[in-house]
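Hi R.,

Here's the chain you asked about this morning:
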Amino acid sequence: MPFAAITRSPYQSGQQTQLQEDWLRWIELGASGVMAGDHGVGKTVMLQKVRESLSPKLYSVIVLTHTSLSAGDVLCALSQILGSEPSARRSRTARLLLETWQREGRRPVLLVDEAQNLNAAALEEIRLLMCASGQLCGSHPRESLTLSLCGDGELLPKLKLGINAPLLSRLGYHLHLENLSETEVEAYLQARFKEVGIQTPPIEPETVTLLHKACNGNPRKINQLLQQTILLLLEEGQKRIDSALIQKALPKVPSLQMRRSTSD
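And here is the predicted structure, written out as tokens:
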């Protein structure tokens, strides 16, 4: 099925490639910061590619994806990901984490997905961990914890709240992943059809503009809309996807229903 949620070869636009290179460069420099973008635009795919690009010989990388956690839960989750048994005491768990990083001798990197869900206490716990790791490393400040917070449009405003000011002061970059342009949507469609062996996409040229406008260039919404459209194509026995078929599929996608009602 074309446009399935899982793909063997994730599409990367020129913008995504450049942002990924920038993100890696900041991490290699030991800087902490923010990667933001709408839901479904491809942030998690980029995060995984960044993780794969970091040498395990040089970096101890932790990816935290479940973020509706308390301050204590964050420490426990990090400890368990590293293969350690967390202590009943938060201070002891934090110390075990620091000792693990010091013993390994690799630079610790924490990549947090859906970071907008972290509450202020959890964010402060991470900041304190950053401070403590820098002190523990002594004459090797570049080996202190490097943090990348990845989230939606609510992340940066949340970090700008006064309660999060100490953490914000430690963040040195802000990258933003935009939705696909109309030209990128056309390239995206070709790549996803090609992935399932369809070299010439069975889609009318004028529908690209409609897809871009209806989904605001969001890859996840494009996938959902075209899955519904292809099902209608098969049901009605048509051979090509046209604007009328896409219009008929639009009400079947919940997120696009919400967008249309909001615009109305």
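One quick note: Confidence is low (pLDDT under 50) at residues 138-142.

Cheers,
M.
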